[in-house]
Amino acid sequence: MNRMSIGTGSQKSQKFTESVIREMTRLAESYDAVNLSQGFPDFAAPDAVKAAALDAVAADVNQYAVTWGAKPLRDAVAREFTRRYGVSVDSETQVTVCCGSTEAMVSTMLATLDPGDEVVVFEPFYENYGPDAILAGAVPRYVTLHEPDWTFDPDALTAAFNQRTRAIIVNSPNNPTGKVFNRDELTAIAELCRQWNVLVITDEIYEHIIYDGIRHLPMAAIDGMADRTITINSLSKTYSVTGWRVGWAIAPPRIAGAIRKVHDFLTVGAAAPLQAAGAVALSLPETYYTELAVGYQRRRDMLLALLEPRGFVPFKPDGAYYIMTDIGAFKFADDVEFARHLVTDVGVAVVPGSSFYHDPVLGRTKVRFAFCKRDETLRSAGRRLAALTPPVVTDLGSASVR
Ligand SMILES: Cc1ncc(COP(=O)(O)O)c(C=O)c1O
C-alpha cells in the first residue's frame, strides 16, 4: 500500500471535504452578507432555559456529569419521548447524552458499524452523515429523494439493501428539504430493515418544527421498530441553543452500551450545567412548542413570499427551517457560481445545493435558504434580493436572466 506522507492526513480524512455550510458562514462574515446559510437562530433562547443554565453554574454544577448524561436530563428525555409517542424508554439503560446530535450521530456510527459495512443515506442529506459513515470505516449508499414532494422510489430503496447493509439514516423533518416522512414511507423503510436485519438511525432534531398541522412520527413508534432504532435529538434547534452542544441518542440497551463506551472515550461528556438546563428546557409547557412551530411557519411564509417574485422556484417545506429552491431559471453555470454571486454581489449567503448530494450534478440548480432568523434579518435579505435581476420567462416557458 502506498502510504501517504506525513502531513496529508489519514486516507479517511481525504475522502471528504470541509463543511460547505460552515464555509458559507465564514464567507458571509467576510462580505458582511445576511447569513441565511447555516441553521442557527439569530434570536434569543427562552429566558427560563438561560436562567436555568446560570443557576446551574452558580450552584456549582461545574464538574463532569455521569459520562452518559446527568440523570435529570436522561429522565426528561425518556419521559418526554414516552409521553409524546407512547414508546417506553428506560433512562438508565437507553439514553446517552452527547455533545450535540452531531456527536450522538458519530458515536452511534462508530459504535454500530464495522469497516466494509454499508449505510443507506437519503440525499439531499445533512452533510455530516457521509463523513460520519466514512470515519466509521463504512460505505455510504445514496438513495435520492425526488422533488417536489421529496419521496423515494421504492425500487431504488430496495436495490440499496444487501447483506453488507448495517444501517439506514433517516432525517425527519428533513434538512435541507423540509420533508416530513409519513407513515407509509416509514413503514416501507421498516419492512426493508426487518428483512435485511438493519438498524435505523433517525435524526429527529426538527421534531417540533413542523407545519400546517402535520405531526411528527418517529421511526421508533412504527410497530416493532423500537428494538432496531436509534433516535437522535438535541437541545440545539428546539430551544435555540445551537452553541450549547447538548444532544442525545435513545437506543435499545445493548446498542446504548456500545454508544456509551464510544462517547465516553470521545468526549467524556457534555457540559454539566447545560445538561441541568436541558432538563428544565424539556419541562417547558406545551404552549412553548406550539408557539415555536407557529413562529417558524410564519417565517417560512415570509421567506417564500420574498423568494417567489424574484424568480426562485421554492419547494415549500413541511418541517425544519430551510427552503430548497430551484435556481435553474437564473441560468448560472451552477449552484456554486450562483451562491458566490449572491454572497459577494447581492449580500445574502445561502448554501449551494450540490453540498447536499454525493454527485454535485444533482444539486446544480438548487440552493438552500435558512429562515431561523428574526423578521428584520429576513426583511433585510429581502431588500438585498430585490437587487437580483429576476429571470425573464419566455413564451416557451424557459427563462433567462443575463
Ligand atoms: C439534520 C441535522 N442534524 C444535526 C444537526 C446538528 O445538530 P447539533 O447542534 O445537535 O449537533 C443539524 C444542524 O443544522 C441538522 O440540520
Quick rundown:
The protein has 13 helices and 16 strands.
Could you please describe the fold and organization of this structure?
With 402 residues, the protein is an alpha/beta fold. It is built from 13 helices and 16 strands. The protein has helices at 20-31, 47-58, 71-85, 100-112, 129-135, 154-160, 183-196, 235-238, 253-267, 272-281, 286-307, 335-346, 375-385, and strands at 34-35, 95-98, 118-123, 139-146, 151-152, 165-171, 199-203, 229-234, 247-250, 313-315, 322-326, 348-349, 351-352, 366-370, 392-393, 399-400. The chain has an eight-stranded mixed β-sheet, sandwiched between helices. A four-stranded antiparallel β-sheet has the order 10-11-14-13. The chain has a two-stranded parallel ribbon with strand order 1-12. Helix 4 (100-112) packs across helix 9. The longest helix has 22 residues, at 286-307. The protein is globular, with a radius of gyration of 21 Å. The protein starts with 19 loop residues before the first helix and ends with a strand. 46% of the residues are buried. It binds pyridoxal-5'-phosphate.
Note the topology.
Layout: H1 20-31, E1 34-35, H2 47-58, H3 71-85, E2 95-98, H4 100-112, E3 118-123, H5 129-135, E4 139-146, E5 151-152, H6 154-160, E6 165-171, H7 183-196, E7 199-203, E8 229-234, H8 235-238, E9 247-250, H9 253-267, H10 272-281, H11 286-307, E10 313-315, E11 322-326, H12 335-346, E12 348-349, E13 351-352, E14 366-370, H13 375-385, E15 392-393, E16 399-400
Parallel strand pairs: 1-12, 3-4, 3-6, 6-7, 7-8
Antiparallel strand pairs: 2-9, 4-5, 8-9, 10-11, 11-14, 13-14, 15-16
Bound molecules: pyridoxal-5'-phosphate.
Residues 39, 100-102, 126, 171, 175, 203, 205, 234, 236, 242, 247 line the site of pyridoxal-5'-phosphate.
